[in-house]
């Protein structure tokens, strides 16, 4: 049985739902200047706002204007918590101001009050791919150590302001995806840096992420001073990399590939880099600049829990030709003959979730929180506008079964489960509307047309029942 404190809910990120990109004094964030993409084509990083392009994030599903209606629907489903992010640019439009934007602060006050009215706990990510664009243009993004100061200031302002409304925090969303630095989008949205345009992309990535790790640790420390009851976590993209075969070469290759996935998690959770990181830097002649106080900061700022996203596993083969675009595969990835993939090539593997939870728990012995999981699909409403998303129910059900095994059979300390995109939102990787995850359908198409009307999909009633029975009736 799951504990009766188990946090069932849903997850989104500000820039994928809010819209209102220039309302309420909000500044331009880096996602505001990405173009939308089409299936199979990467989103593009532009050099500023192009007026003649369709920018899905600019309007998104207008959660900014509809949040009361949406929160009411979340409450009807029985959500115990709701994960979203604070758009840094609503609070500090440029990122380097001293004084916050009052209207931005008020928006999140209103949103959190609305959630709390229904007994829904806000779970807040401080940085989910939406740093101020000004910090990229003016300072070069997180490559610049100065960003630590700006981020810590922003975090302190919002933690102080919402200290009685928000208990659960996360610092950076999927910080470890930057390890996949050959794929520009991940590095850019996390750090504002296009690594493969740098002289030494990998060394630059390590230096950049080091600044984020120090900032994260400082925020954990400062946050606990503001309210000792705060639970402040990290957020890791968890993609277990299976060896393709029991050939020792494949076994070793998968272990080495997993080193990459854990590296930054180790710093968040243990307060130090793993031994193999130092060896790699030495071997490759990298010089990662660290201030003398950094080691102490990292040690003192270890996280309280690990938030994770889980969508897929990958199989890796030592002698595979490098393939994949960084979204559907990591270097050495090969199709796994035992699992199917979604339309976007994401391998569907519910057992992999139990595997992932075991990996993380064995390594860290810290509470885990599944803050993203879900099935992106093209939903087709019938004539009445109803979406019968049995495929989504099937996906989530199978994952919840394995999640429960991790708790009930493996004894994993799991705080909660918030499926991704509980209301339809803009897909991050494709920039499109048509890749949907929600229990709630939003009438908006890929070209931005639609009424923005909200309606319940079949999965809405299903998930409501799951929460009502604490995961017993699937
Ligand atoms: C994660 C991000 C989310 C989200 C999700 C699904 O990497 O944290 O922001 O979007 O992936 O990806 P997509 O929207 O591309 O299907």
From TrEMBL:
The name this protein goes by in its record: 6-phospho-beta-glucosidase
PANTHER family, per the entry: 6-PHOSPHO-BETA-GLUCOSIDASE ASCB-RELATED (PTHR10353:SF122), GLYCOSYL HYDROLASE (PTHR10353)
Organism: Anaerosporobacter mobilis DSM 15930
Location of the active site: 372 (nucleophile)
GO CC annotation: cytosol
Annotated GO biological process: carbohydrate catabolic process
Record keywords: Glycosidase, Hydrolase
Pfam families: Glyco_hydro_1
PROSITE patterns documented for this protein: GLYCOSYL_HYDROL_F1_1 (PS00572), GLYCOSYL_HYDROL_F1_2 (PS00653)
């Amino acid at each position: 049985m799951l504990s009766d404190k188990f946090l069932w809910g849903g997850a989104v990120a500000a820039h994928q739902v809010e819209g209102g990109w220039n309302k309420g004094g909000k500044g331009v964030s880096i996602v505001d200047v990405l173009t939308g993409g089409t299936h199979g084509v990467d989103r593009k990083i532009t050099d500023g706002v192009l007026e003649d392009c369709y920018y899905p994030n600019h309007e998104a599903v207008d959660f900014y204007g509809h949040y009361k209606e949406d929160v009411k629907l979340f409450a009807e489903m029985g959500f115990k918590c709701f994960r979203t992010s604070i758009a840094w640019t609503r609070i500090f439009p440029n990122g380097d101001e001293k004084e916050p934007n009052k209207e931005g602060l008020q928006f999140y006050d209103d949103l959190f009050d609305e959630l709390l009215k229904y007994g829904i706990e806000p779970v807040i990510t401080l940085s989910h791919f939406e740093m101020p664009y000004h910090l990229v243009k003016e300072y070069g993004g997180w490559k610049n150590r100065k960003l630590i100061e700006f981020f810590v200031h922003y975090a302190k302002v919002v933690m102080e302001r919402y200290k009685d409304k928000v208990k659960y925090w996360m610092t950076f969303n999927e910080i470890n995806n930057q390890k996949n630095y050959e794929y520009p989008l991940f590095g850019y949205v996390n750090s504002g840096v296009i690594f493969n345009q740098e002289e030494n992309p990998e060394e630059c990535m390590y230096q950049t992420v080091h600044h984020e790790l120090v900032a994260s640790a400082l925020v954990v420390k400062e946050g606990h001073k503001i309210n000792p009851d705060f639970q402040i976590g990290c957020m890791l993209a968890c993609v277990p990399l299976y060896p393709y075969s029991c050939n020792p070469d494949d076994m070793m290759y998968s272990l080495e590939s997993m080193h990459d996935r854990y590296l930054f998690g180790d710093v968040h959770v243990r307060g130090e880099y793993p031994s193999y990181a130092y060896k790699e830097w030495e071997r490759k002649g990298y010089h990662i600049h660290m201030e003398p106080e950094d080691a102490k900061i990292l040690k003192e700022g270890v996280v309280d829990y690990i938030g994770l996203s889980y969508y897929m596993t990958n199989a890796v083969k030592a002698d595979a030709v490098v393939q994949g675009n960084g979204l559907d595969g990591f270097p050495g990835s090969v199709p796994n003959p035992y699992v199917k993939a979604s339309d976007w090539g994401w391998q569907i593997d519910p057992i992999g979730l139990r595997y992932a939870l075991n990996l993380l728990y064995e390594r860290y012995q810290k509470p885990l929180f599944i803050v993203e999981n879900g099935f992106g699909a093209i939903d087709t409403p019938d004539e009445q506008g109803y979406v019968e998303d049995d495929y989504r129910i099937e996906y989530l059900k199978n994952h919840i079964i394995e999640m429960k095994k991790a708790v009930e059979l493996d004894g994993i300390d799991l705080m909660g489960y918030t499926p991704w995109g509980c209301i339809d939102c803009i897909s991050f990787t494709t920039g499109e509307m048509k890749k949907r995850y929600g229990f709630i359908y939003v009438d908006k198409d890929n070209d931005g047309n639609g009424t923005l009307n909200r309606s319940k999909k079949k999965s809405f009633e299903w998930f409501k029942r799951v929460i009502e029975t604490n995961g017993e009736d699937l």
